[in-house]
């Protein structure tokens, strides 16, 4: 099954994709935050399930941003008619930034790809949880 993770941002959405049989998530795209454009991209890629990063606050509560993501997830569910799950994404963007800095990416290049790398980290976590006994 092809699964995608989305790192939601108010302007951009990072996308990563993996086949559950292989289980290796790869950064795939950074798209404008437009439900219709994202839905078309997911359909074109044959995505059968979506995981979206849920931005919980550090102490575990949800805020206004979480409500935005929940509304976005519901719009995708209705538009695509495939499973859409939310997964705690605390610190994924910071981890993505750290990995990109260690890889000697320039600040400009990091800005271009950090959302997709954060989505890949989110998908990696989701796939690990799926495989856990």
Describe the protein.
- The chain has 133 residues and is an alpha/beta fold.
- It has one domain: Nucleotidyltransferase, domain 5.
- Helices cover 47% and strands 25% of the residues.
- A five-stranded mixed beta sheet has the order 3-2-1-4-5.
- The longest helix is centred in the last third of the chain and has 25 residues, at 107-131.
How are the SSEs placed, and which strands pair?
Elements: E1 2-8, E2 12-19, E3 26-32, H1 35-44, E4 49-54, H2 64-80, E5 84-88, H3 92-102, H4 107-131
Parallel strand pairs: 1-4, 4-5
Antiparallel strand pairs: 1-2, 2-3
Helix pairs in contact: 1-2, 3-4
Query: Separation of termini?
Result: 20 Å
User: CATH homologous superfamily, by name?
Assistant: YqgF/RNase H-like domain
Annotated CATH topology? Nucleotidyltransferase, domain 5
Give the class-level CATH name: Alpha Beta
Biggest sheet: strands, sense, closure? 5 strands, mixed
Order of helices and strands: EEEHEHEHH
Mean pLDDT: 86
- Secondary structure: helix percent: 40-55%
**CATH architecture classification:** 2-Layer Sandwich
Question: Please, how many domains?
Answer: 1
Work out the helix count.
4
> Beta-sheet strand percentage?
15-25%
Which overall shape is indicated by the principal axes computed on the Cα atoms? globular
Rg = 14 Å
Count all strands and give the number: 5
Class computed from helices, strands and strand pairing: alpha/beta
